[in-house]
Amino acid sequence: MKTDIEIAQEAKLEPIVKVAEQLGLTEDDLELYGRYKAKLGDACLSSIKDRPDGKLVLVTAINPTPAGEGKTTTTVGLGQAFAKLGKKAVIALREPSLGPCFGIKGGAAGGGYAQVVPMEDLNLHFTGDFHAITSANNLLAAILDNHIHQGNALGIDTRQVVWKRCLDMNDRALRNVVIGLGAKTDGFVREDHFVITVASEIMAILCLAEDMQDLKRRLGRIIVAYDYEGKPVTAADLKAVGAMAALLKDALLPNLIQTLEHTPALVHGGPFANIAHGCNSVRATKAALKMADYVITEAGFGADLGAEKFFDIKCRIGNLKPDAVVLVATVRALKYNGGVAKADLSGENLEALKKGIVNLEKHIESIQKYNVPIVVTLNSFVTDTQAETEFVRGFCEKRGCEFALSTVWEHGGEGGIELANQVLYTLENKESYFSPLYEDAMSLKEKIETVAKEIYGADGVTYAPAALRQLQKLEELGFGSCPVCIAKNQYSLSDDPSLLGRPTGFEINVREAYVSAGAGFVVVLTGAVMTMPGLPKQPAAFGIDVDESGRITGLF
Question: Which of 114, 292, 501, 505 could, after both became Cys, cross-link 90 (CB 3.0–4.6 A)?
Answer without folding.
Answer: 292
